[in-house]
Amino acid sequence: MTEETRSTCPYCGVGCGVIIETEANQIVGVKGDPDHPANWGKLCSKGATLHLTASENVTRQTRLLQPLRRFERSEVPKPVTWERALDTAADQFSQIIREHGPDAVGFYISGQLLTEDYYVFNKLAKGLIGTNNIDTNSRLCMSSAVAGYKATLGADAPPACYDDIDQAHCLFIVGSNAAFAHPILFRRIEDARKNNPAMKVIVADPRRTDTASIADLYLPLLPGSDVMLFHGLLHIMMWEGWINAAYIDAHTDGFDALKAMVRECTPEKVSEVCGLSKDDLFTAAKWFAKSEATLSLYCQGLNQSSSGTAKNATLVNLHLATGQIGKPGAGPFSLTGQPNAMGGREVGGLSNLLSAHRDLANTQHRAEVAKLWGVGDVPAKPGKSAVEMFQAAADGEIKALWIACTNPAQSMPDQATVRRALQRAEFVVVQEAFATAETCQYADLLLPATTWGEKEGTVTNSERRISRVRAAVPAAGEARQDWKIVVDFAHKLEAMGVGSEFRKTTSAATNNNADRNSALTPIALSPETAPSTTTLFPYPSPESIWTEHRESTRGRDLDITGLSYAKLEAQGPQQWPYPEGATEGKTRLYEDGIFPTPNGRARFAALPFIPLADPRENRYPFSLTTGRLRDQWHGMTRTGTLGRLFGHVAEPTVQLHPADMAERGWQDGDLVHLTSKRGSILVPTESSDSVAKNQAFMAMHWGAEYLSGCSSTGEPLAGVNALTTSAFCPTSKQPELKHAAIKVLKAELP
Ligand code: SF4
């Protein structure tokens, strides 16, 4: 007898609904959920093989199935009980906190965790321990989009939705290879074009990607020149009288400063800096400004940059200047890479954020969250962002790291520094579902976590839509839910008195909650989950965590006080905001022209063009960019177990322009050393005219199993992040994973 469970795909930010088929507690199939508005039953190659990867991971024993402990990193870790494992973690963390203070520990978590997991991790660090050293791999994914929205529209709230793709007359796709990274959304783009043959599609990307292949106008801009492109388009729009002066007057501030800045961005100058023809610039400006509705779709090409905030904000400028926002088919729409990068933002899961889009730097916001949590204070000292956290650990400042559901030894830029940090840290906990993650080799303690098919909670996709994630089978081995691991660890710390200076008594916290909102669901603790002492973590279920998160959103831009697990069950996935009294979520934001700023007006961002952090030079004459393949996900811990997902691309290569290959007399498959200032890897070449001359492309998925290398001082490294730079945007702190200067030299074979 086959049973069906509705859940959500754990891969990309499209957030497709899936139906998991099980027999006798085994996952035997998966199909698209015909009722989910993100995909209406469709699945891409990754989503459609979820059941196969789940069973392969069990067959090939790549799952982590019990807690493991080792005393020397060279040892094979040995099984321990959960009780022993959590006692060890609490002993080590509390000792380091007592000796060196709370900022001597750091938590590095993941956009693949569920909202409930994220919420308790954030509360553990900021509420109980008293450190803001908690960041996430979402920093590598969308923190520039967050900063760009806040700088211009006043809040981190994507104003558009997937339906806008169907209603757009012009699509401006920039820095996004949706064909590979968001395949179901790309199919929607293709369908929209078929249904509206007059639709214009502009794709701006240094690489002629599969997405660019459908463009009516392809803009192969030079790497890093996006801000100059957007300023140049605005210059042309102003010159030609294509801006919307009425919208600017009624709904925005700051246009004069921007106007002064873009005056010098003439078509001649922009053409030279971006490497684009003036005719193409005029065509793009005209289509963007004059179309009935223009929707921008953008992703890591803008975000993963040392000018990430400026790139995002200056693209939003174009929408504000032309009034292409707050109406069907129009708006700046950032696509999230990971399945719950959006949910993590909602609960404040970055070192500079607090619950419900509050800012750590805001005194009032800290006081509100402290009251919600029933703690005396949330520390004001800024926490370390991802790159800063590993640098601090490499410098010996952070002594204990807790890493959950992410693989920084492979995925972080400047891998040599990250590995040095993991080696130097006195105690490293890795909370993970997959034993094959590179980072596991650095763990003193490995804690087995549940994964897709076993987890309960919620995620939010790119269009602000909250979907349920449901367990279809029991946890594998002794794996536990991520939120439960955090709560159990928190109880151990509380029992040891960690953070007691911040805590009030449970009765005080309960009274706080009662005062604040009588609608808060009372939390009943079951005997086995109830701690013996008072606790800030009285959660018997993910729903009880979500209910507290929900309350934190009251009156905020993402207010979901009208939603509940029961409503999600009855109505299906819903978009935020969904305040108390609402009967449905809000499809599109800012239709009334009022923005969440102090005076209700959006702000133009007059931010200058700043060149790349690691530009090409004589010794490193190639621009390396990184990206995704269609059928693989992140470090391949899940997709790398399934042969059929290698049918599209079987092995790592570096793509080089045919002319660069011919000049050097290289053939496809010749082995070359790619070397940056930070490290080197050995990889076969592949001739491809999708990259321009002097440019190189590599997929980011391949790890040690496929691609070995070394640092500039000879330590072993793996994958393309041996080469990338940790230079980051000063505002969003998102690193420049999209560009590194490299040299390419043919390997001398013995
Ligand atoms: Fe999963 Fe993204 Fe594919 Fe949808 S498009 S099935 S969310 S990987």
From TrEMBL:
Domain of life of the source: Bacteria
Cofactors named for this entry: [4Fe-4S] cluster; Mo-bis(molybdopterin guanine dinucleotide)
Keywords in alphabetical order: 4Fe-4S, Iron, Iron-sulfur, Metal-binding, Molybdenum, Nitrate assimilation, Oxidoreductase
Any one Gene Ontology cellular component term annotated for this protein: oxidoreductase complex
Domain 4Fe-4S Mo/W bis-MGD-type: 2-58
GO MF annotation list: 4 iron, 4 sulfur cluster binding; metal ion binding; molybdopterin cofactor binding; oxidoreductase activity
Biological process annotations from GO: cellular respiration; nitrate assimilation
Protein family membership: Belongs to the prokaryotic molybdopterin-containing oxidoreductase family. NasA/NapA/NarB subfamily.
Listed name of the protein: Nitrate reductase
Source organism of this protein record: Hydrogenophaga crassostreae
